Amino acid sequence: MVQKITVDFEPIGRRVEATPGQTILAVAQGAGFTLGAGGVYSPCGGKGLCGRCRVRVKGEGLSPLTEAERRVFTPQQIAEGFRLACQAALYAPVKVEIPPESMVGIQKLQVEGIEVEVMPEPPVARYTLTTEQTTIENPRPVWQQVAQRLASDYNLSQLQVDMELARQEPPLAQAKGGTVTVKGREIVNCFFHRPVPPPVGLAVDLGTTKVAGFLVHLETGATLASEGIMNPQIAYGEDVMSRLAYALEDEGQYQRIHQVIIDGLNRLAKDLATRAGLETKDIEEAVIVGNTAMHHLLLRLPIAQLARAPYVAAVTTPVEIKARDLGLSFSPGAYVYLMPVIAGFVGGDHVAMILGSRLDRTDKIVLGLDIGTNTEIVLKYNGRMLSCSCASGPAFEGAHILHGMRAVQGAIQAVRLKDGGTEVELETIADAAPLGICGSGILDAVAELYRTGVIDVHGRLNRQHPRVRVPEGGPAEFLLVPASESGTGEDIVITQKDIGEILLAKAAIATGTELLLKAAGLGVEDIQEVVVAGAFGTHLKVASAVAIGMFPPLPLELFRQVGNAAGTGARAALVSLAERRRAEEIAKQVGYLELMVQPSFQDTFVSSLSLPERSSL
Amino acid sequence: MVQKITVDFEPIGRRVEATPGQTILAVAQGAGFTLGAGGVYSPCGGKGLCGRCRVRVKGEGLSPLTEAERRVFTPQQIAEGFRLACQAALYAPVKVEIPPESMVGIQKLQVEGIEVEVMPEPPVARYTLTTEQTTIENPRPVWQQVAQRLASDYNLSQLQVDMELARQEPPLAQAKGGTVTVKGREIVNCFFHRPVPPPVGLAVDLGTTKVAGFLVHLETGATLASEGIMNPQIAYGEDVMSRLAYALEDEGQYQRIHQVIIDGLNRLAKDLATRAGLETKDIEEAVIVGNTAMHHLLLRLPIAQLARAPYVAAVTTPVEIKARDLGLSFSPGAYVYLMPVIAGFVGGDHVAMILGSRLDRTDKIVLGLDIGTNTEIVLKYNGRMLSCSCASGPAFEGAHILHGMRAVQGAIQAVRLKDGGTEVELETIADAAPLGICGSGILDAVAELYRTGVIDVHGRLNRQHPRVRVPEGGPAEFLLVPASESGTGEDIVITQKDIGEILLAKAAIATGTELLLKAAGLGVEDIQEVVVAGAFGTHLKVASAVAIGMFPPLPLELFRQVGNAAGTGARAALVSLAERRRAEEIAKQVGYLELMVQPSFQDTFVSSLSLPERSSL
């Protein structure tokens, strides 16, 4: 019997027995390094062609370097012990280090506590090729050689070269070869005269208020950098309706509001790339998810019908467009993929939320909420999905609240009242002196005011309460923080109007939930899980939301706060074409419920404005 | 037995027997109206979905209109007797008129005497669809309805809408429906609010001197209009080298020479469309073939390596690009397809010439010549093709010839000398008074001067000849037309320098032929056919070209003058994706012989400068 040898695979820490003469790839595959367990990526099937199964070996005892390996590696890499797993055979015990880019497996996208498994199917593929110098005797320019080699070695025929890439790239091939990036049948990038950066893409959750960007490694799914910026369109309107109205006024204004978001995305991309030690021109693919208005303003689509009845999108199908056609300065041939849209007010961000939270795959009856200036709600039941959109307004972003502010340092994010509301306990972001109240703080405050009886079932402040006062000419207000304790040197109060804004917002959301359940023929008690997505949704106290009737009266353990699920969905779609197909399926499956045309809309909304009976708490 | 009924099909004039109750489509198919015989086009397979098998029926005796037919036809069309062949069943004798757009079959492209059979596989397809009005209760915009209908009725999923089309088209669907044009998975045009023009495309043979355009019906292959214009780039240089040099001087000049041809193509398209009663925005597809320099200047590709050694193309693969990305004002989503290129001086026009003349399919040993400022020659032998490019110069276009002119009214196009060259017989275009000499005329003249001994084997004029004179300070010249007989009022002469220009041109072509044969290991006697393409090639007298050694000394019956075969190839590729695949095969199969690096190039060229021994005539 042949003596077995041991092979240690790092960083996964697996020790495997091998038969002398086996290739590293065969050993890895034989040991069941299947999907999810850190197998070695080998798209060419172990022929030494793709150069993708690179590993680094510590120790002697390997077969000599093959020609394929000499073609793929630089002398420096060879010196560092790099080998192709499909080429190197084992004859003695060794340690094999699998670099991240060679690792295949179900990727884990980790975001704020939830983990999503993504089957990798990168939108672009890279190939390292040899070329011969172009001369009058060998008059084959670089693209001809590349096309011939991709056809012969990878069976990729009928390839096109992106025109802008062809315009930029010197056409004469050199003897040393290089790497190309291929998307489908198109060569979209190349590295013949410069170092090869990691394959990266940009995922964007394009919100009305906030734009979240993620720079992601397209093969491993690793997030290399992430950043949130304010949507610069905010200068032209706080909510989608005011922006649409601005853009509709004249073509020049539309162009301006379109251009500022393009500029903003270019800046965001540059910041992210710089943080990862890269440049924007290294970004080879992008996925953008946004609500329908953001989507349309980005693409310069017709919007009149979106701002007015019948409130519909112009385009709902997924859009794939060259980044440069939008004015985005990514790699020469980079594409941007925009998630499909469900309806005028249920956009690609909702599809991404469902995708990112895996709501489409559950067998339970689930209510999913993505709370924002506009709140989208989906009800998953009996294999179906039904969504609606609620105009919840920007109160939870701190807008329209007298001392409202965004969730930044100094914002009051949690409130607890004691002794019938005479004593106030606060929690501020970064424990700074309080400057104002953010969404979760005002939500808490209203819930506590109600619990302690400072407000009644209609939200009216009890004017007899010691902390309630009525300034001359103004509405009643509750003194939350006296000037002496605030960071602004002024009182921080909650006014009767502030409470009204919160009741309007919660009524909008509660109405959506109730009408969805009604359309589905279900009751609140049928809901088996409530998924709460979005930045505000992650930070709010669920008990408070239930207490004021914004969320249905269900046990707290049924609620799951999943963070920026839309961003997660965008990243999943960025690294995997399978996820895009799934997103397209979701967009097709989700039914849209237009609340405005429901006969009971008005009644439901009005009755939702009241606070729930305290007995139900 | 059931009584048979007779059906007359027009315009093909076929009388067929039918069983009552059969559909018109079934009758046509049963009668063997297969490809090439005028069958009825029915892409949906007779389901009444595509609306393409429309026929016009004279006489009663048909089944009632179906719902599908009411959807497809306007009341006016119904009144005119239009029916869908797949829906209408026959119960009495009728006359069925098949309109051209419903006729399938091998198309015949008729050009200057040759006929080419093209298997139709149109690049775009049209679908007529119903839509429901978009309202707040039915909030599905037009593209969503179109995508859903194409998916359900035609199994076309994952469709995208061209962004520019989506920007232009009103997004609200109306109850009356309309027609869309689909290319692959993309909706590229639509007709919801306007009449549906015939599906037309533009084929362009983009020559250095002349640009030939053809407006073609994409389904029938019929040429609706054709026109030739001068290439406006001629203002920046007569031949490709001078244009490349101009463009290389600075980026602004490159932009200018690029823009003039774009403008020229837009004008040409407009003229052609106007003649056919259409607009340029009705052009839904285009194919452009041109030599490599014209191709690169059109696409703004790098050209330094084309103008200098190693004289190679930047891009040789076929290019498919949105017309608008080139600045061409066709339909919103129209594509332009550019034929693949073989080498720096063997371009897409050569591929189109081989395609158009069907040279790739012959089993004979064939020499193919496309004569122009640059002459490309292909040798087809033993299943292989080998091509070269010869710098034959613009002499045959009338340039560099003292009294040279283009082949327009008044040009001497044929010359016959009598009585030892003392008497001259001429033929002019349109029988007008002679103004100058065009290519075929100067070719004839040199051949006749040699035959009658006025010039010797080196082309030297016999200064003793009565019609030969030596003006003071100038070269010797032969008086072709005295001032008294010319249309210019001045003598028309052929100078010693003119003869030298013709000998240079013929030597270039003869050298190419000889070196191709040498590379293939063949002799002149092995050639079984000579295909002569191009406008000049069609009009020249083959006997004269053989007499001066420009063409190999072969029996005249082996020569086939095929006209603008490149234009024919362009039209074939315009109407048929199968032809494009074939063109791409040709481009891959053709080997390129770089004459400059052949060791015997110089010797062959010098010996080709002499005229052949008269004994070989």
Automatic annotation (TrEMBL), chains A, B:
Domain 2Fe-2S ferredoxin-type: 3-102
SUPFAM superfamilies membership: 2Fe-2S ferredoxin-like (SSF54292)
CDD domains: fer2 (cd00207)
InterPro entries: 2Fe-2S_ferredoxin-like_sf, 2Fe-2S_ferredoxin-type, Beta-grasp_dom_sf, Corrinoid_activation_enz, Raco-like_middle, Raco-like_middle_sf, RACo_C
Entries under Pfam families matching the protein: Fer2 (PF00111), RACo_C_ter (PF14574), Raco_middle (PF17651)
GO molecular function, one term: iron-sulfur cluster binding
Protein name, per record: Uncharacterized 2Fe-2 and 4Fe-4S clusters-containing protein, contains DUF4445 domain
Organism whose genome encodes this protein: Thermanaeromonas toyohensis ToBE
